[in-house]
Amino acid sequence: xxxxxxxxxxxxxxxHLHRVLAGDESARIPQQLFAGDELVADRWVPPEVGYSLDQxxxxxxxxxxxxxxxxxxxxxxxxMPVGDFPHCWGxxxxxxxxxxxxxxxxxxxxxxxxLPMRSGDGDFTAFKVIRFVxxxxxxxxxxxxxxxxxxxEGCSRIIRQVRKYVFQQDKxxxxxxxxxxxxxxxxxxxxxxxxxRAVTAHQLLGFQFQPVCPMPDDxxxxxxxxxxxxx
Length: 231
Prior knowledge:
Elements: E1 3-8, E2 16-17, H1 18-21, E3 48-50, E4 94-96, H2 98-108, E5 112-116, E6 118-119, E7 125-129, E8 142-145, E9 159-164, E10 177-178, E11 189-191, H3 193-201, E12 207-213, H4 217-228
Parallel strand pairs: 3-6
Antiparallel strand pairs: 1-11, 1-12, 2-3, 4-7, 5-7, 8-9, 10-11
């Protein structure tokens, strides 16, 4: 079994929270909604999202990097293809197009909470992964920990970065999509071969799968060399 880190492929167009980019701070989604396995539908206000930034005049400075160079052929966001798993700026949830929602709903439904969105550019559904599996082998993984302060002595250690993931495979035998308790904030989502095969079979676009366990040989060699050099 291969475990993958799930993300959106940034070669495809991204969605934007239009009201936030237009300067409406009240439209920001509270960060606490993204953490943990708590259901959030009762506090969720469907955000307005879209691909186009043309309606924002002038374009906010914060958007310039996100849309690349709109005047450079092949590099502007308008030049990019539309995928089925678009990244959405300002939301730490996954976002499914109508195609991917229809294809994956039954497969991932038991492990996620679906949340509606509003858009004039298509039908999109956000999802929060509420399935947590304590399967990270902390002892054998390569982890950078946050420095522990004196006042934090009674608290759990906080992970800054996982350079090498080692999972207890027996705990993941029947999993499809999951998170781990050590990384409970942000969109840190893992999937198994079952999910990857479904995406491939339905020819869905815009999904990116980074194999993290077992780690590809070239990445393993890089980390070993870095460790020998004391970095």
